[in-house]
Design goal:
about 280 residues; Beta-Lactamase; four-stranded antiparallel β-sheet
Length: about 280
């Protein structure tokens, strides 16, 4: 059985065998806020056209749409900015006296307040829906990554390919760069990397500490506050010691609440592969 965890001679890039899907393209928060402002601008153009058809008080309905779109596409923050900007633009351009933020009529003041309340409720509901959709996609991505690693273990892939698959699985689970380090002749070095993961000297020192003390380390936490990676030691039955690393500092979706659970699953798959390889050698 080929999947006993022997140490590859060098690290590999992201084009590894058994690679899971790459990172999804996501807009930066700044882009989200910018597009939310653009949505309000588009709604304003529409409101100018509609202004000659319906009373100005009903124009508030036009500005609910950019808030909902912003909440569904970019989250609650951009939606809140869109809602506040919508109220300000409606007041300044369409509420008498125009070209002023002063509101002369109590009815118009009520319309502005109602717009803000409706927009806040709609953005909250839409943002929650977006959050559930993102969580569902994240769970599906993690399941796909673990399935790929489990398939590699079951198929008894060579150790080099298996470690590459483990690095890709870590990237798929957390959607960040990842690396697997292996100990050879008492020295710990990267054996496989995914998504262009590169370690600094501080991060290599954190990985060595994790292996020597058989304890995980956390990114940007003393005494390794210069490390962007979390490291998790793996002790296999065949005594081939590995360290799993994921770059959780600055992760696009924020730091997971419990990354250790997924790390332990990957470690368990690697340990199972090593155990199967050792059993196969004894049988022969």
């Amino acid at each position: 059985m080929a999947s006993d965890i022997a140490v590859p001679s060098s690290a590999s890039g992201s084009n590894s065998q058994g690679r899971v899907s790459g990172p999804a393209t996501r807009a930066s928060p700044i882009v989200g806020y910018g597009l939310s402002v653009l949505l309000v601008a588009v709604a304003t153009v529409i409101a100018f056209v509609v202004d000659n058809i319906v009373p100005a008080s009903n124009l508030s309905l036009v500005y609910v749409l950019p808030v909902i779109v912003a909440a569904l596409s970019f989250g609650w923050g951009p939606a809140l900015i869109s809602a506040m900007l919508s109220v300000a633009v409606l007041d300044f351009l369409f509420i008498e006296p125009r070209m002023s933020f002063r509101v002369a009529s109590p009815t118009d003041l009520w319309s502005l307040g109602l717009l803000l309340v409706v927009a806040a409720i709609a953005s909250t509901v839409a943002a929650q829906s977006r959050g559930r959709a993102l969580a569902s996609r994240c769970a599906a991505r993690q399941a796909e990554a673990l399935h790929g690693l489990a398939h590699a273990v079951i198929q008894a892939e060579p150790s080099t390919a298996l470690i590459k698959t483990a690095a890709s699985a870590l990237s798929g689970i957390f959607d960040v760069p990842a690396v697997v380090l292996a100990e050879t002749s008492g020295k710990l070095a990267p054996a496989a990397a995914s998504r262009g993961a590169r370690l600094t000297q501080d991060e290599e020192e954190a990985a060595r500490w994790a292996l020597a003390n058989d304890k995980p380390t956390r990114a940007e936490t003393y005494p390794f506050d210069q490390s962007s990676f979390d490291f998790w030691p793996v002790q296999t039955p065949a005594n081939h010691r590995l360290v799993l690393g994921v770059k959780l500092a600055g992760a696009p979706d924020g730091r997971p609440q419990d990354p250790g659970r997924q790390m332990e699953l990957v470690a368990a798959y690697l340990a199972a592969a090593a155990m199967g390889g050792a059993a196969a050698r004894r049988a022969t």
